[in-house]
Amino acid sequence: MATAGGRRVITCYGAAVLLAAALLLSAPDATEAYDSLDPNGNITIKWDVMQWTPDGYVAVVTMYNYQQFRHIGAPGWQLGWTWAKEEVIWSMAGAQATEQGDCSRFKGNIPHSCKKDPVVVDLLPDTPYNMQIANCCKAGVISTFTQDPANAAASFQLSVGLAGTTTKAVKLPRNFTLRTPGPGYTCGRAIVGKPSVFFTADGRRATRAFMTWKVTCTYSQFLAQKPPSCCVSLSSFYNDTTVSCPTCSCGCQNPNGTNCVKGSPHLGSAIDDPGKWTGQPLVECTSHMCPVGINWHVKQNHKDYWRVKITITNFNFRMNYTEWNLVVQHPNFDNITQLFGLNYKPLTPYGGDINDTAMFWGVKPYNDVLMQGGNKLGSVQGELLLRKDSQTFISEKGWAFPRRVYLNGDNCVMPSPEDYPSLPRMQAL
Ligand SMILES: *[C@@H]1O[C@H](CO)[C@@H](O)[C@H](O)[C@H]1NC(C)=O
Ligand SMILES: *[C@@H]1O[C@H](CO)[C@@H](O)[C@H](O)[C@H]1NC(C)=O
Ligand SMILES: *[C@@H]1O[C@H](CO)[C@@H](O)[C@H](O)[C@H]1NC(C)=O
Ligand SMILES: *[C@@H]1O[C@H](CO)[C@@H](O)[C@H](O)[C@H]1NC(C)=O
Ligand SMILES: *[C@@H]1O[C@H](CO)[C@@H](O)[C@H](O)[C@H]1NC(C)=O
Ligand SMILES: *[C@@H]1O[C@H](CO)[C@@H](O)[C@H](O)[C@H]1NC(C)=O
Ligand SMILES: *[C@@H]1O[C@H](CO)[C@@H](O)[C@H](O)[C@H]1NC(C)=O
Q1: What is residue 344's predicted lDDT score, i.e. its pLDDT?
Q2: Are strands 78-82 and 174-179 parallel, antiparallel or unpaired?
Q3: pLDDT digits (tens, 9 = 90+) for 3-44
Q4: Which residues are listed as membrane-spanning (predicted)?
Q5: Fold classified for 229-427
């Protein structure tokens, strides 16, 4: 719409307006879904119509997570859309609609859902086999291709009724929404593309979807409007002071301490009933009140190398963070030499010119799960060895510390740069 309007204006007023329009379009828009560390990241939803039925079609819907480091963790995705006509979902496999809605006009066979705007959620891993399809039933968790390519996509199948039985008659659903389960993603319009091609296991025969459309969803931290979920503390071998997470990084303890737990809670009160779990953290009482704390410790310094120990601690009694990942920015990351207990991939969001950002994740099965708080195993560690030139003093104010840290795609609260541990210049290491 905007471009059509824009073009009409341009033909009237010429180049000056063209420039103004271009500036307007490129101006940072607060609602724009964009992450400078993953500018092309998106989740693509592919909808393949596989066969016609007497009153509609059977489709396989697959969501691909094409984001570098943002996965969809527990309690998982919720995909919604609005039907264009009077469609109903006769049946589903590999997922379910959260509400049946008003099916009172049906006699005999009752649809799975008659909602005009159904919301679909994944099934749990222990779902009976006759309700599963390939790539389904992971409790709504979708990993990234970087970290776990086998689990970076999710599929379900649905049989749609009252939908039309030709490619012309089928109308695309509108207004796709992806929630995880909170906001954050914005989905574009469904666009009909080339029909998907499927190969048999031996690769000797190809079949084709009758019709395929795609929807692209992108994430914006701004839209998500989540309170911070992690914070960073800094320490070093050359200064005894640990710079802790800023006070109230993720919220403040209320005066009676009723919004957090002192010590280990009784499991009964800590863990919600399965159906009622909202993903709300239940945190240990700390000055920062974050569900997760990350400590960056400068451990050693040699002439040409220095070493960092990263410790991630879970203060949330309600969450095991499976397949956690960190994205860290540091100017010396172009010279990471060795890793201990960590997997690693450099992220070069600016096309390789600036190589200062990296993604780290745990080694299966040793530290890929950050166990719930209160558990002896509620923390994970790893180390990095970095090469520097012998002139670089790591103790110079702030140099050895990260500039930016994300946990599972969420920006972590950092101490203020003035507080970074340092040594007076004369004693620099
Ligand atoms: C989504 O990501 C994929 C993989 O990186 C890319 O090929 C595709 O162009 C992206 N889609 C959009 C609309 O940006
Ligand atoms: C699209 O979905 C949003 C959120 O579910 C809703 O507020 C809005 O009214 C919907 N628009 C249409 C045209 O259905
Ligand atoms: C804290 O406790 C006091 C006295 O017991 C009570 O009046 C007050 O409402 C409580 N505040 C909160 C935030 O729970
Ligand atoms: C975390 O994992 C442990 C071990 O598998 C399990 O006992 C515990 O219930 C899990 N906690 C949550 C909150 O899921
Ligand atoms: C970035 O630096 C790492 C070494 O830390 C190197 O392995 C990688 O190839 C570099 N990537 C680019 C695009 O320069
Ligand atoms: C990192 O390595 C490159 C090439 O190996 C070198 O040119 C550069 O100076 C190094 N950077 C630092 C900070 O040591
Ligand atoms: C350690 O770091 C703190 C915070 O930057 C600083 O105030 C203090 O002077 C440092 N200690 C020494 C011995 O340099």
Answers
A1: 94
A2: antiparallel
A3: 333 333 333 333 333 333 333 333 333 344 467 788 889 999
A4: none
A5: Immunoglobulin-like (2.60.40)
Torsion of Cα atoms, 386 then 390 then 394 then 395, to 10°: 160
Ligand 7 mutation pick, 416, 423, 425, max ligand atoms within 8 A of CB: 423
Atom of ligand 7 minimally distant from the CA of 397: 5
Task: Please say whether the beta carbons of 304 and 389 come within 8 A.
Answer: yes
Choosing from 233, 236, 241, 429 the residue with most ligand 7 atoms within 8 A of its CB, the one to mutate for a pocket test is 241
Least confident of 122-136, 143-157, 252-266: 252-266
Position 23 scores a pLDDT of 34
* Rounded average pLDDT over 50-57: 97
240 alpha carbon – ligand 7 mean position (Å): 8
What residue spans define the domains of the chain? 42-223, 229-427
Q: Which ligand is nearest to the CA of 46?
A: 1
Distance from the alpha carbon of residue 242 to the mean position of ligand 7, in angstroms: 10
Pick the atom of ligand 1 nearest to 42's CA.
1
Query: What is the Cα–Cα distance from 121 to 253, expressed in whole angstroms?
Result: 34
CATH topology of domain 42-223: Immunoglobulin-like (2.60.40)
20 lines ligand 7 (CB under 6 A): no
**Residues ≥6 apart with Cβ < 8 Å to 67:** 38, 41, 42, 43, 144, 219, 409
The Cα 389–Cα 303 span in angstroms is 8
Same fold, 42-223 and 229-427: yes
For residue 424, the model assigns a pLDDT of 66
Q: Does the bond joining 195 to the residue before it have cis omega, within 30 degrees of 0?
A: no
| pLDDT, average across residues 167-186 | 94
